[in-house]
Amino acid sequence: MTFGSLRLRLLLAGAASTLVALALAAYGLTILFERHVERRLTAELVVHLNQITAQLEPSTNTPGEITLAAQPADPRFEVPLSGLYWQIIHEQKGTVLRSRSLWDSELALPPEPDVDDVIHQHRIAGPADTELYLLQRRVELPARMGGGTARIAVAWDAAETTKAVRRFAADLTPLLTIIGALLLAAAWVQVSIGLRPLSDIRSRLAAVRSGKNRRLGADFPDEVRPLAQEIDELIDARDAELQRARARAGDLAHGLRTPLQVLQAEIERLAKDGHATVALNLSTVTRTMQRTVERELARVRLASPQRDSEASIAAAVEQVVRVVQRTPDGERMDWIVDVPPDLAAAIDHDDLSEALGNLIENAARHARHTVTISGYRNGPAVTLKVADDGPGIPEDNLAEALRRGGRLDERGSGAGLGLAIVTDIVESWSGTLSLDNANPGLAATLTLKASSRP
């Protein structure tokens, strides 16, 4: 797939949006987890802070000082640099009580201006260049403890929270990777299903072009159906225009052929009366006119044949032979026709008649006594042979006979387009025309697709 592919563009857009969504989800989940950890940590530190506050009592050894009746239960307070610390500052006496976990360090507790017994949160520097998350309250001591105020603080190493968040992110990454892969697979399926109607249109257009179908039809999704309808309407309009063009071509043929035949007869009369030069000049002009007219008529007729057409071989042969038998060449011939009545080919009836007319007229013109027409089905093809018992054509000139405008016999009034037009007709219907010397005579063989209709 290239970047011009709609499928690739949709997949890239889906992949980009998926990656952005997963990145935002990872960031959001990490933030939520961090806040959850902080809330849990805050709740735990509040419990420790309340326990320490409840254990305050006057010192029995030093009057006016305070001490803890019992150490906090959490063993981490006893482990040096464990990350969990507590500290009490008696603001009037200046004495400091602290947990064993602080070892020989002392926390620089932030000042608290008010005695409100409210827990305040801070982030401060801790031992060994660590950052601590600290909860602190400032309380007023009762008279039995010497009076005054004290700041009581509990702190936790913030790096532990960061480590917990990183471990959560590490555990989250494989899950998000799997989700991303599933979303990309779902996007592939979605794009494939979404673009399938376009593939159907392409295949149906190919079927219309090959003649298997006449139209695309309307069984498409709502979003694609208008496109299919527009294409069908375009095909209908084009077919109607082609039919009108073919009709005009037929009218033009009937309107021009008779005057040209009369003119050719007058040219022959002039030649017989001794005006050979004038007759030759007029014959050249007339032949040019015939060639031009027949070429343009053939182009219009073969512009776009109806691919679902069907023609009866026997009916077309009978029609053409009946006409040719009335000509001077046809009257003197013996006609042998061997075509099954049910033999049919995938070709327009008028096109078949045009091709057969040229072949049978040529055969009648050059035959000595007999013209033989035979046809049979050969698998998916139909073979039709028109043979005469005339002199034939030299092998070296067979290709020249099929060339447009090629004339091996200068007798008669033809424009030299007959066999070339036959070739154009059969090739437009995916058929072939071949010429072979039959000894005696010449055999012209048409091969066409057999009709697919029962």
TrEMBL record:
EC number: 2.7.13.3
One Gene Ontology cellular component: plasma membrane
Major location category of this protein: membrane
SUPFAM superfamilies for the chain: ATPase domain of HSP90 chaperone/DNA topoisomerase II/histidine kinase (SSF55874)
Annotated ranges, domain HAMP: 192-243
Regions annotated as coiled coil: none
Subcellular localization: Membrane
Keyword terms, alphabetized: Kinase, Membrane, Phosphoprotein, Transferase, Transmembrane, Transmembrane helix, Two-component regulatory system
Pfam families in the record: HATPase_c
Highest taxon, organism lineage: Bacteria
Residues spanning the membrane: 175-195
Domain Histidine kinase per the UniProt entry, residue ranges: 251-452
Catalytic activity: ATP + protein L-histidine = ADP + protein N-phospho-L-histidine
Record GO biological process: phosphorelay signal transduction system
GO molecular function, one term: protein histidine kinase activity
PANTHER family membership: SENSOR HISTIDINE KINASE TRCS, SENSOR HISTIDINE KINASE YKOH
Protein name (record): histidine kinase
Species of the source: Hyphomicrobium nitrativorans NL23
Taxonomic lineage of the native organism: Bacteria, Pseudomonadati, Pseudomonadota, Alphaproteobacteria, Hyphomicrobiales
